[in-house]
Amino acid sequence: MDDVSTGAFANAVDRRSVGPTNEFLRSAQIYLCLMASIVAVRVIITFWIPTIFKNRGQEGIFSWPFIVGMTVLGLPAIWLCGKTGIPAMWDKAVSTWWRIWLPLLLGVALGGVAVLSDVTLHHTKILEAITGQRSINIAFPSSVLIYPTAAIAVNVIFYLLPIPLLVWLVSNLLLKGRAQASVYWVVAALAASVEPMGQLSLLRGHFALITVWVFAYLVVQELGFNLAEVYFFRRAGFLATVALRVGHYLVWHILWGLTGA
Predict the structure, then answer these.
(1) Distance CA 164, CA 10 (A)
(2) What span, in angstroms and rounded, lies between the C-alpha atoms of 18 and 11?
(3) What's the CA gap between 187 and 185, in Å, rounded?
């Protein structure tokens, strides 16, 4: 047997050795570690670093019932990922570049774009005027703990829980396994619109305070970011979506927040 054949045989054996059950167990372990990080932050902000959240949604993410619910519901969602063409948490077919570094760098770049737009359009000042807050960002040092773990929770809510379930119901059950990719993108587009609609709902009744350029930027930025998230979810798995949002939050909420923005 030549070297090429030997290598192909070894790769085939390696792929067979990591079956669906093993992939799920490894993904579940990684997911539970992510949940443990949220628990750790909840304990820290309860006993050592009191945190002032900016809205009830942020505070709710770190409530015990929500953490337990995320943990319990997230495990079957991970199992459904394996049934709907979404890569496992540490899928061997996905490189570290695609899983971590590319989405992280893209998130940092998009965070930089958000900062530049704020310098030009001053949209955070508009949001602060609407909400009556001095800053839309959680103060340091809590921000260093809150935003990375909030990125995990937000992506569980927007992507991990609804997308695999709906794709599985429509493609796997109703369509008998057909049109999985098409169904994914329909469902993903709907999921990607949820966060932008929520952000824009804050502007209801306050449109006199914003310009057309600010409104257009908020729509394009929010929708574009979420479409990037669902693309990476399909291409590289859940950890890629977390890396993208962490990179964005690092620049936009943590570093830009240090300036008092």
Answers:
(1) 32
(2) 11
(3) 5
Residues 78-109 as b or e (16 or more Cβ within 10 Å = b): bbbbbebebbbbbbeebeeebbbebbbebbbe
The number of beta carbons lying within 10 Å of the beta carbon of residue 128 is 16
Cβ pair 83, 164 in contact under 8 A: yes
**Residue 218 near residue 123 (C-beta atoms within 8 A):** yes
Q: Which residues contact 168 (CB under 8 A, 6 or more apart)?
A: 80, 83, 84
Which spans in 18-100 are helix H? Answer: 20-47, 56-61, 64-81, 96
Report yes or no: 232 and 241 within 8 Å, Cβ to Cβ.
yes
Pair of tokens at residue 183: 């169904």
50's tokens: 């009191």
Per DSSP, helices labelled H in 132-211 are: 142-155, 162-167, 180-201
Q: Which amino acid is at 176?
A: K
Residue 79 pLDDT exceeds 60: yes
CA separation (Å) from 72 to 68, 233, 254? 6, 20, 30
- 36-49: per-residue pLDDT in tens? 999 999 999 999 99
| CB atoms closer than 10 angstroms to residue 135 | 15
Buried b / exposed e along 203-230 (16+ C-beta atoms within 10 A)? beeeeeebeeebeebbeebbbebbbbbb
- Is pTM beyond 0.85? Reply is yes
- Is a pLDDT exceeding 70 seen at residue 13? no
